[in-house]
Design brief:
With 215 residues, this protein is α/β, with parallel strands linked by helices. The protein is built from 9 helices and 8 strands. The model has no long low-confidence stretch (mean pLDDT 93). Monomer.
């Protein structure tokens, strides 16, 4: 199967992508992993991406699209793949359609992990990370430490990362609504969109997604 996974930050895309890819025996292709792999390997695309990132700029669509194309052409993706973080806008979605068409392929489904905005803010803004090298992560609601502000494992101080502040999360959501959310309507128009309620236990969300794909 060839699947695109979409949803706002905090919807659990990375977690669900890993489980779904394993259940379907297809590779999980993450934009973040693509960037890291190309940069660490020193590929030409990696050098281009790094230059933009080091300057604090977004990596242009053409570089992201080229990385995705290269990855999807690898042998392990011949029988299908799960895309996570790509496409991130309608232009990339159109480019993906062209790539697949040229290869005589098509998408089977687009899974939209649906989570209310307030829940997204609660999930991300509630994270607390240990300042020590252990990097253990807690959550004030879902995985609270035994003692507030103290890591259960090493006794280190727990803090909220700047990227997890409510203001930052709401800004990320605004970027998502502006840039990425339009692809939901794009794929809905193609009859590919499947909306999955993403509240509840991880296993329950995976089960809903697998049942939807079987249909």
């Amino acid at each position: 199967m060839r699947i695109v996974l979409v949803g706002p930050p905090g919807a659990g895309k990375g977690t669900q992508a890993a489980f779904l890819a394993k259940n379907l025996s297809i590779p999980h292709i993450s934009t973040g992993d693509l960037f890291r792999a190309n940069i660490s390997q020193g590929t030409e695309l990696g050098k281009q991406a790094k230059a933009y990132m080091d300057a604090g700029n977004l990596v242009p669509d053409e570089v992201t699209i080229a990385m995705a194309k290269d990855r999807m052409e690898q042998e392990d993706a011949a029988g299908g793949f799960l895309l996570d973080g790509f496409p991130r806008n309608v232009s990339q979605a159109e480019a993906l359609d062209e790539m697949l068409k040229d290869a005589g392929m098509k998408l089977d489904a687009v899974l939209d992990l649906e989570v209310e905005e307030d829940e997204v803010v609660k999930r991300i803004a509630g994270r607390r990370v240990c300042r020590n090298d252990s990097g253990h992560v807690f959550h004030v609601t879902y995985a609270a430490p035994k003692t507030e502000g103290v890591c259960d494992t090493c006794g280190g101080e727990l803090y909220q990362r700047g990227d997890d502040s409510e203001a930052t999360v709401r800004n990320r959501l605004e970027v998502y609504h502006t840039q990425t959310e339009p692809i939901i309507a794009y794929y809905q128009g193609q009859g590919l969109l499947v909306t999955i309620p993403a509240l509840g236990e991880v296993a329950d969300v995976t089960r809903r997604a697998m049942e939807a794909l079987k249909k």
